[in-house]
């Protein structure tokens, strides 16, 4: 009887430790990766093994930056025309993604409809 109680107690403590670890990790994730309202990376392009370029918004101004493991350098502040091109391109990309998703969804729904129709015909043939 004592060994069963000990086993039950061990399992309860194991679950308690797992829950505490999960809570701690969630808290650390929120603190580490908190979203800033004033800084946002719009687009990032890997240029080399350890270097990349990014378009960054800092306080409603757009910047082109170079990023490496040792430094982050400001290449230039983007002008109004360049910013408008970026915004338009983002909108076009979003519309393209949404359109592709709708095409995939429609194809999927048609395929499922054909499979259901085929199953109904097969069941009707077996009944006859």
Can you tag this structure with a few keywords?
22% strand, transmembrane, 128 residues, cell membrane, flat, Flagellar biosynthesis protein FliZ, 3 domains, membrane, transmembrane helix, 4-stranded antiparallel beta sheet, single chain, alpha+beta
Percent in strands: 15-25%
Low-confidence stretches: none
Total domains: 3
Structural class: alpha+beta
- In whole angstroms, the N-to-C terminal distance is 63 Å
Q: DSSP helix count? A: 2
How confident overall, as mean pLDDT?
83
The helix content is 55-70%
Question: What are the SSEs and their pairings?
Answer:
Layout: H1 2-32, E1 39-46, E2 52-58, E3 61-67, E4 72-77, H2 80-127
Antiparallel strand pairs: 1-2, 2-3, 3-4
Subcellular location: Cell membrane
Main location: membrane
Transmembrane segments: 6-25
Structure in words:
- By secondary structure, the protein is α+β, with helices and mostly antiparallel strands.
- The chain has three domains: 1-34; 36-78; 80-128.
- It is 62% helix and 22% strand.
- A four-stranded antiparallel beta sheet has the order 1-2-3-4, with no helix packed on it.
- The radius of gyration is 27 Å and the shape is flat.
- The mean pLDDT is 83.
Give a concise summary.
By secondary structure, the chain is of the alpha+beta class.
């Amino acid at each position: 009887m004592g060994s069963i109680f000990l086993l039950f107690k061990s399992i309860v403590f194991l679950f308690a430790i797992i829950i505490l670890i999960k809570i701690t990790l969630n808290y650390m994730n929120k603190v580490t990766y908190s979203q800033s309202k004033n800084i946002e990376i719009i687009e990032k392009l890997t240029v080399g093994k350890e270097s990349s370029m990014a378009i960054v918004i800092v306080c409603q101004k757009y910047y082109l930056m170079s990023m490496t493991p040792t430094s982050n350098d400001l290449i230039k502040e983007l002008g109004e025309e360049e910013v408008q091109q970026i915004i338009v391109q983002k909108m076009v990309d979003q519309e393209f993604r949404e359109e592709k998703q709708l095409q995939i969804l429609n194809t999927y729904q048609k395929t499922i409809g054909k499979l259901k129709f085929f199953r109904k015909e097969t069941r009707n043939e077996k009944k006859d």
